[in-house]
Amino acid sequence: MRTALSIAGSDSCGGAGIQADLKTMTMNGVYAMTAVTALTAQNTTGVRAIQEATPEFLGQQIDAVFEDIFPDAVKIGMVSASELIRVIAKKLRDYEAKHIVVDPVMVATSGSVLLKTDAVETLEKELLPLAEVVTPNIPEAEILSGMAIKTKEDMLAAAEKISKTYGCAVLLKGGHSINDANDYLYANGEGHWFEGKRIDNPNTHGTGCTLSSAIASNLAKGYELPEAVKRAKDYISGALGAMLDLGKGSGPMKHAFDLTGEFAKEVR
Ligand SMILES: Nc1ncnc2c1ncn2[C@@H]1O[C@H](COP(=O)(O)OP(=O)(O)OP(=O)(O)O)[C@@H](O)[C@H]1O
Ligand SMILES: Cc1ncc(CO)c(N)n1
After folding, report:
1. Per-residue pLDDT, 70
2. What is the pLDDT of residue 268?
3. Per the count of CB atoms within 10 A, which of 118, 224, 241, 262 is most buried?
4. Contact 219/29 with Cβ under 8 angstroms?
5. Which residues of the chain carry a pLDDT beneath 50?
6. Angle formed by the axes of helices 138-145 and 152-166, to 10°?
7. Is 40 a residue of the active site?
8. Is residue 148 part of a domain?
9. Which residue range forms the structural domain that includes residue 126?
């Protein structure tokens, strides 16, 4: 069985963060492991409190995983502080980790800030150069590229700029801001649109976490990046399309929707 490690924050309401990653990786047929960067007291309406792991304890979790069950892919989500980012980067370099997917989580769907301002630079310098692919949404890509992104053309230019600056592929997600379900992948000097069908579902808590974990799962299974993205988009469409409706805010998706027919073959 292929394996994947999520290095991310815990979401007490279960729809984003580590909890979304575990569900997504399991549903995508890989064995899921975790290194928790922070606990959040959070629900669908917002983040109430954050308790970070110490850098030392985060390092111990990563060591425990790599020394025993070496992951075939690694997904990195919420890492709120520079010292935690530095530990992750050092460990991933030391272990020569493969297939690293970085979701540069900065702000939650509910609007809560999940990355300290001074940590953005550390993320750019230390983590992005290790990534096979980074998956910003539009506001995150504006920060990483230093450009305003208002149109599809801006998306192309920003993705290329981020890729060239940090030496990794970029999947720029259009969701929420520009043409919703369509994402743009820039990798190895080539661009490609992934056109998803927009699902009319206001419950999008954890979509970014889920997409990046599904991509990591597919890379762990040996798919090349464009195919890994295509399959991840199919998975998120299934989870959104199951129309779960929980909580008072933007609710979680149904990660464990019924995998049937052609779709089941796609995901496995
Ligand atoms: N209504 C929708 N219908 C279909 N696909 C969607 C919809 N909304 C978002 N997506 C897809 O979900 C994936 C995650 O994108 P999104 O832009 O929501 O991430 P994000 O903003 O990082 O998420 P988060 O809110 O968890 O931080 C992308 O592939 C996007 O195209
Ligand atoms: C723990 C955590 N990670 C990521 C996100 C982004 O959706 C969130 N809301 N919570």
Report:
1. 98
2. 64
3. 241
4. no
5. none
6. 50
7. no
8. no
9. 3-134+202-264
Specify the DSSP class assigned to residue 253: P
Q: Which of 24, 122, 135, 207 is catalytic?
A: 207
> Is residue 188 a part of any domain in this protein?
no
- Give the total number of structural domains in the chain: 1
Q: Supply the DSSP symbol for 126.
A: I
Please report the pLDDT score of residue 245 as a whole number: 97
Residue 114's pLDDT is what? 82
- The Cα–Cα gap between 70 and 19 comes to 21
The domain spanning residue 120 has which CATH number?
Answer: 3.40.1190.20
* Alpha carbon of 189 to ligand 2 centroid (Å): 30
Nearest-CA residue for atom 31 of ligand 1: 181
Residue 181 lies in a domain: no
> Is residue 247 exposed (0-12), middle (13-18) or buried (19+ Cβ within 10 Å)?
middle
Is-contact 5 63, C-beta < 8 A? Answer: no
Query: Is the whole-model pTM more than 0.90?
Result: yes
User: Regarding beta strands 182-187 and 169-173, do their DSSP bridges make them parallel or antiparallel, or are they unpaired?
Assistant: antiparallel
Residue by residue, DSSP assigns 168-220 as SEEEEE-TTTSSTTEEEEEETTEEEEEEPPPP--S--BTHHHHHHHHHHHHHH
The pLDDT of residue 29 is 96
